[in-house]
Amino acid sequence: MSAILSADDLNDFISPGVACIKPVETLPETKNQENAYEVTTEDKVEPTDLPPAQISLTDCLACSGCVTSAEAVLISLQSHAEVLNTLDAYPEIPLIRDQNGTTINNAEDSGQGKIFVASVSPQVRASLATTYGISEKEAGYMIDQLLSGPQGLRSGGKNGNGFTWVVDTNVMREAVLVLTADEVSESLSPGEGESSLPKRPILSSACPGWICYAEKTHPFILPHLSQLKSPQALSGTFLKTVLSKSLGVDPSRIWHLAVMPCFDKKLEASREELTDVTWRQGDHSSSEAAPVRDVDCVITAREILSLASSRGFSLPSLPLQPLPSSFAPPFPEKTLESFVSFKRTRSEQSLATGTSGGYLHHVLMTFQSRNPGSQLVINRGRNVDVVEYVLMSKENQPILSTARYYGFRNIQNLVRKLKPARVSKLPGANPAARRRQPVSRNAASSGGAGSDYAYVEVMACPGGCTNGGGQIRVEDAREIVGSQGDGASESLKPSPHEQRAWLSRVDEAYYSMESESETELEVQLQQPSLADKEAKIHEGLQRWSQFMDIPLSKLAYTTYRKVESDVGKDQTPANDTTRVVELAGKIGGGW
User: Fold this and answer.
1) What family is reported (predicted)?
2) pLDDT per residue as tens digits for the range 132-181
3) Distance between CA 471 and CA 374 in Å, rounded?
4) Is 247 exposed, middle or buried (0-12, 13-18, 19+ CB in 10 A)?
5) Three-state DSSP class for 398?
6) How far apart (Å, rounded) are the C-alpha atoms in residues 18 and 67?
7) What is the pTM of this model?
8) How far is CA 226 from CA 187, 197, 204, in A?
């Protein structure tokens, strides 16, 4: 378990509704007492100092006792210590560069090593940039130097290992944005395959805290969830599939680290649906082999600080410049290298897109580009985290109604709007009568009811992903400044005003991404049209699918499941008679 994580760190926290099905202490086994008068000797007394039970992420996902961020408290792996232990436990697979690109040096490969790769979210870079007073671009260099550079993790440890490739999750985020717009368009155009599409309104599924909440408390929401993987999950699938095939290694020998702003991303990485079982085909998959996760470990921005301090150096001491070419090998598959090196422009990470990736913004811009002359009408909700957007045609007719809901308090209001009407069992009741849905005070012009939306961007954290529970807090920044200065750092708890001011600075760093050079700035000023950009993304996804010979539906899409609790249920196995009685009861029969 990460030492920096506690329940007090989790913002917008929802308390557990029922007891955890995994006890926090180990109970002795119950023995049949054949002789009630047996004398117990000292050697038969049960020990009282039993070891505590180990609770894994898989246990958490199989339980509905807790919701959202509460489960992160139970995490025993996926911390900065796990990263260091893995780097020390396995040697790095040696790579060479030749006329064919990057390949494995089979002569020096022991067969026990791993290839270490990482993906980093832009929200983490913004958090580090605010903490150290640097730009987001320089924060990206800092992370690259830490994970891959000669003065970072490679300077210590048992094997001197580092990460061979560090990619930006914005690469796969752009793919998810394009596929999201396609998903919404198909849902509004009835035709073949409509049954396989999510129900309207389509709800974004990139936030694991929101998904965990829906699966465990409101299963009627699941048919509405977007079936696309999150940028983190899609990055893991892309790296594991392409690297394993191009380098000729098993996916289990590729270790993928994701650096994210949210602790709940650790839970997402442990989902059974996000393993190689979903995309491996033919003889490659074995029922006896353990599934290989697409993302092996997730750490947060605050754990980046712990990762550096554990090796005895500070992040500001690292060079704020690109990696030397010797530590940045080219991607082994040349046909997909341009797809991996895709970079977002300033306009694609702006105030209009929001702090969570711009899913809703991209959907609106896509439909607006298809309807020339249309205008966007914005209706503010009760707070800044609830906004409704209606795209109106030139004739002032609604084309598309969407919304944004951030924070669990607002999410609960959205869920109530989507909750199906309860059918009355009273005689003579009208089965077609529906319960009146609550509407927001500013929703009159857009219909207001949740079912009227075509798409809703849902995030668990108020303010979006820059306010994730794993981001560096203002009190953490105070300690860093105090340790670098005269040591007189303030220990007082920051006021709400200071916390809001800090979050505003993180948002500003997220929006103020810089260009690499004047040449790149000129390229940004000549941005391709939205249609050209979508065509390029579709082309890259198609090349990926063809290279792997796997349908895109298995690479980019996922599923969800209702999670039922075993709390209070008899855990003893049922006999044949009990099973027959249960089956008879389910089909309406009886004994």
Assistant:
1) Belongs to the NARF family.
2) 999 999 999 999 999 999 999 999 888 899 999 999 999 899 999 999 99
3) 38
4) middle
5) strand
6) 10
7) 0.81
8) 11, 8, 5
